[in-house]
Amino acid sequence: MNAPALKVVDAKAEAAAAEAARDAHEEALKEAAATTPAAPAPTRAKSKKKVSKRAKDEWNRFTVDIWITNFNWIEFGLYRHTRNRAKSRQFTTDMDIFGEIIEDGKRTGLFGYREDAWKKAEGMHKRLVFRLFTDKLNWRATMDLMIGRSLQQTIGARGMPVMTYSINTDDGDNYIVYLERSANKWPFMPENFSFFIIGKDGKPQFYRLKRAFINLGGDYTLIDQHGEVAGYLDGRVFSIGGKWKGQVRAGADRRLLTIMKLFGATLIFNCDARRHMKRLYKDMLAGKIEPALERQESDLYMNPRRIR
Questions:
Q1: The dihedral sign for the CA sequence 62, 268, 208, 163
Q2: Along the chain (308 residues), what's the average pLDDT of each consecutive run of 10 residues?
Q3: Which portions of the chain have biased composition (kind: Basic and acidic residues) (predicted)?
Q4: What is the DSSP letter of 243?
Q5: Taking a C-beta distance cutoff of 8 angstroms, is the pair 103, 61 a contact?
Q6: Which long-range contacts (CB under 8 A, 24 or more apart) does 16-20 make?
Q7: Cα–Cα distance between 88 and 137 in angstroms, integer?
């Protein structure tokens, strides 16, 4: 065999060897893939953060807890009462702390009322004055029973007790909120209270507090001007002092939450306040009392456009 022919044969042999090696390499890769366990697919990192239960909740919840006795750590002892007066000018000498606000398991507020003005005064000088403090006894809000306005409404309702409360929710607020019991009530039917607050845009928002038809602990539903439920007050049936669990829709005006807390605290005086207005009405008709108003209440009726 000549030289050119040998070269052709050698080239074919090398090509065949290369192809055989390539096939063998592919077979080896297939066998290795079959015997090697597959690597786990990469897991996608969880980018979704945990959302707290409170963040998911559509309601701001609180508890109004009324104490049984006056002997409590807030005001027990002359020295402590004097120190409390120094913390806030709203903490008067006759101030009695009678309950607390609980939110998220912690005390966030304290309720007080002027004991002498309610228990020792008589006639038109007897009035309810509530104050809401922080847990450090800094003033937050005041709620007054307006004797003059309440008696006017009671006379107009021909003896049906109507209570009107003025609520000052903050030093920075420009408006007083007036909460009033409705005179449109049939005997043995649930009572209603109403009020409105003026928003930052200057527009009023109206609300009604409707007592449940069947209730044992003092249950009220807060209804807005569109007829939708905006909050609740659920009274506990078996409680010695008084306890209400309340809730207001999250994102609502902060004053709405303050009003609901104050209203819950006044419920233990609700029956006494009705009897007081009924008695004033009868005594006025009989000429037994002479109309008079306390200076603090008279100030609330003053003309804001008067010359000062």
A1: negative
A2: 50 51 54 52 48 64 84 51 60 88 94 93 94 90 96 95 94 87 89 94 94 83 96 78 89 92 94 96 94 90 80
A3: 20-30
A4: E
A5: yes
A6: none
A7: 7
Closest CA to 109 of 132, 75, 88, 92: 132
Q: How does DSSP classify residue 97?
A: E
Q: Using CA atoms, how far apart are residues 242 and 216, in angstroms rounded to an integer? A: 12
**What does the pLDDT read at residue 303?**
86
Residues 245 and 236: beta-carbon distance below 8 Å: yes
DSSP state, residue 73:
T
- How many Å apart are CA 243 and CA 235, to the nearest integer? 6
Cα–Cα nearest to 140, from 162, 116, 165, 172? 172
pTM flag (> 0.85)? no
Residue showing tokens 């939110």: 103
Name the CA dihedral angle for 188, 143, 131, 203, rounded to a multiple of 10 degrees.
120
CB-based contacts of 230, cutoff 8 Å, min separation 6: 207, 222, 223, 224, 248, 249, 252, 256
Predicted pLDDT at 229: 95
Alpha-carbon distance of 282 to 289, in angstroms, equals 10
Element (H, E) at 81: helix 78-87
Closest CA to 101 of 243, 252, 268: 243
CB 253 within 8 A of CB 197: yes
Element (H, E) at 60: strand 59-66
Compute φ and ψ for 299, nearest 5 degrees.
-60, -30
